Amino acid sequence: MKIVLLSGGSGKRLWPLSNESRSKQFLKVLKNAEGERESMVQRVWGQLTSAGLREHSYIATSKPQVDMIHSQLGSEIEVIVEPERRDTFPAIALAATYLYSVQGVSLNETVVVMPVDPFVEESFFHKTKELELVLNESGADLALMGVKPTYPSEKYGYIVPEPASSADETFVDVHSFKEKPREEEAAAMIEQAALWNCGVFAFKLDFLINILIANELPIQYDEMLKQYDKLPKNSFDYEIVEKSNHIVALPFDGDWKDLGTWNTLTEEIETPLIGRGIITGDSVNTHVINELDIPITLLNVSNVVVAASPDGILVSDKASSPMIKEVMKHSDQRPMYEERRWGRYRVLDYLKYPSGKEVLTKRICVAPGRNLSYQYHQLRNEVWTIVAGHGVMVLNGKSFQVSEGDVLTISKESLHSLRAETEMDIIEVQTGTELIEEDIVRLAFDWKEILELCTV
């Protein structure tokens, strides 16, 4: 059995902490068993490991999230990267071709697809192992996992079983689906043993490969990458689930939540205050999550969430917080904070002059033993001031030691990299006419390979 975790999202549902590269699954606001803060993706990956499924798991994602995944889970993670964001059908089709043509996975292998960030107990992942048996016993095209509802929620989709299905059966035949019904409709469906649709489904690899062949789509990974923009920009539900002849569902009786909005996420945050700030005692059901270096103080304000990051500040009544995705959907602001495989950076200041010249200032933190890629820029010059730590700098083929107090000038087209021997803090000032993250030409990632390119 192979597991494909879908890591997507536009970064709008938990704005301003989430952005294009740091979607909700990467926010470190939950606590693990040791009391340390962890993200939803770190929690799920730990649970998969405990369930013995880590070696069989892959993450399907888009380019902006790759560095964040490697930063939080390690560089050895198997990541299947979309050439561009489309929808869940193209992403899953790409993953299928990767398993088939690159990994050499058998066509009879069961593939389980699930979100990368369900808030569940470990037993949920042990239950997914049963999907392979359910597929084999039922002969179905698809086997879904559904959660037994604890109340008639209007927020979730429902899997409605066939009327003849028995509640005592291991799995049930699926009659239909209902997306976010009214409360009274949900209550009636629960009476019919309907299940919450938690977005987990399984199929035999040949099921999807044969669909790709029938639609004259590539089944070789390299060719799929080339033709990815030709795939229909549709959900897997629309392209596959709704057209399948035989679908069964495996009930799961346990805790499950989708922490996709501020009001649901704060229900699982143990402390009302994260970061600098004060909340007075008369404030009830109020949370402050502050990533800035300035304090936030709330006086007798109840049922609100205040979230602050370099990307912005949100003040919202908790019940209204789901509106943020719609409010921010047209925002194209560049991310002001990102995690990378080598560390992290935060934008401190940005100016654009009437002449068109731009100036952007970053604080960069490089983790010990990590290095930047060997790269150059075509549109900007940079000045680095090292404010803490020491390491090895490579500049135009020459390597040398650098440490606190050093100032480095990196002109456009200059080849450069840095490896931190201790944690390093750097203030970087960029100047140019178009300061974008895409203005990076990377020549090498591995430090040994970078040193081999040096002349000294």
Task: Characterise the protein shown here.
With 456 residues, the protein is of the alpha+beta class. It folds into three domains: 2-257, Spore Coat Polysaccharide Biosynthesis Protein SpsA, Chain A; 271-327, no CATH class; 342-452, Jelly Rolls. Helix 3 packs across helix 7 (205-214). The longest helix is centred in the N-terminal third of the chain and has 15 residues, at 88-102. It is globular, with a radius of gyration of 24 Å. The mean pLDDT is 92.
Q: What integer is the average pLDDT?
A: 92
Beta strands, count: 30
Please estimate the helix content: 10-25%
Radius of gyration over all CA atoms, rounded? 24 Å
- For this structure, the quaternary state is single chain
Shape: globular
- The CATH superfamily of the largest domain turns out to be Spore Coat Polysaccharide Biosynthesis Protein SpsA, Chain A
- CATH topology description of the largest domain: Spore Coat Polysaccharide Biosynthesis Protein SpsA, Chain A
Separation of the first and last Cα atoms = 50 Å
The fraction of residues assigned to DSSP E strands is 25-35%
The residue ranges in which pLDDT falls below 50 over 5 or more consecutive positions are none
Main beta sheet: 6 strands, antiparallel
Order of strands, main sheet, comes to 20-21-22-29-24-27
Give the class-level CATH name of the largest domain: Alpha Beta
Number of domains: 3
Q: Given the structure, what is the number of helices?
A: 12
- Helix vs. strand class: alpha+beta
CATH architecture heading of the largest domain: Alpha-Beta Complex
Keywords: Nucleotidyltransferase, Transferase
Pfam family, one: NTP_transferase
Protein name: Mannose-1-phosphate guanylyltransferase
InterPro entries: Man6P_isomerase-2_C, Mannose-6P_isomerase_type2, NTP_transferase_dom, Nucleotide-diphossugar_trans, RmlC-like_jellyroll, RmlC_Cupin_sf
